[in-house]
Amino acid sequence: MTPEIAVLDIQGQYRIHTELYRSETAQSTIILVNGSMATTASFAKTLKNLHPALNVVLYDQPYAGQSKQHNRHQTLLTNELEAQVLLELIEHFDARFLLSFSWGGLVALTALANTPRRIEKAVISSFSPRVNHAMYDYLERGRQGLAAGNRTLLGNLVNDTLGKHLPHLFKRFNFRHISNLADHEYAQMHFHIEQLLSAGGLNTLGDAYGIAIPVLFINGAWDEYTAASDARHFAHAIANSQFIAVQNTGHFLDMEHASASQHCKNALLNFLQPMAVSAFIQGKPSHTPCCMSA
AB hydrolase-1 domain: which residues (predicted)? Predict the structure, then answer.
């Protein structure tokens, strides 16, 4: 797949690297929202699962990936500013669907609370509104590593916690990426962590009460950091919400093994395009349940 690459000017403040994977057979477009410090490359598996059923848009935040060379990094971005970038991209690409991963869920839910007129459905994966004990410990260790400038600690931290179920090759890529970020990227990460810890948790539930579109929450059954049981707190805020826990899978879902990838693909396309799903899902269904209600 060869993307259409563009660097877009957002509100005269940020230059955003975007990749549009267009499909001749697709009728709708989905935009994907990265997790903390991740880049477009992090969505390689998800892209394959969604294309060609959908046109797929990937982008890098102003401080990360292929966007960072186009920006000056004079100020740190708040969650609200990142949400404004996302809202502009939704309009530009006429995106009807949205999918976020991990801390990208915070940006996605903030954007959805602004009721973007084009978005019809959204998927929030590996995210919960609660900073539980495991997540608090992860964030605190991350804060200490950032304060000390310990790149090795930071590289190992993700693999030892959120990424504990990833294949060895993915862990190598993770370590190399996280331990070699630019100084402004570490500063941005530190800023996000300080905001979360100083607030004593997340403030996403209040914003979520304004979200009326169907929202699917997907969590790994083995994920103790953004637990499926915690994600169910959104049921009180979002009336049109659904919950899936993918069995035998941790935080990184479709990246962890082939079965998880297939199960995630089925869940995504069944939710986003139930009438067309049979045309795109390949292979025989499993004889064991792939997921359960969280």
Answer: 29-257
- Report the C-alpha gap between 291 and 238 in whole angstroms: 21
- The yes/no answer on whether domain 4-129+203-292 falls in CATH 3.30.230.10 is no
Cα-based distances in Å from 258 to 46, 108, 133, 221, 228: 12, 27, 30, 16, 21
**Residues 22-76 pLDDT 10s:** 999 999 999 999 998 899 999 999 999 999 999 999 999 999 999 999 999 999 9
